Amino acid sequence: MNFTEVLVSPILSEKSMTIKDTQNRYTFRVNPKSNKIEIKKAIEALFKVKVTAVRTAIYRGKLHKVGRHEGYRSDWKKAIVTVKAGQKIDVTELPK
Known about the structure:
Shape: globular
Structural class: alpha+beta
Number of strands: 6
Number of helices: 3
CATH architecture: 2-Layer Sandwich
Mean pLDDT: 93
Strand order of the largest sheet: 1-2-6-3
Strand content: 35-45%
Distance between the termini: 15 Å
CATH class: Alpha Beta
CATH superfamily: RRM (RNA recognition motif) domain
Helix content: 25-40%
CATH topology: Alpha-Beta Plaits
């Protein structure tokens, strides 16, 4: 899998910004088929930082109703990446 296929987008919520500032952890939405080793290699290659830990969580799609039609949103995966102290990632733009 290509490095740009592993990372889908950064998650820019209030909680993710808080842990970014206090604990030096960054949150990304990643490809559900990627594993922790691929995520670590992708972050290190794209952002030129040293990753110390990767935590992942899989979220199941919720039931979504529109009128009388219903279906499920797609499943997705989140990765929380801890970066070596003193290093930063600019999460507002992903390298191509």
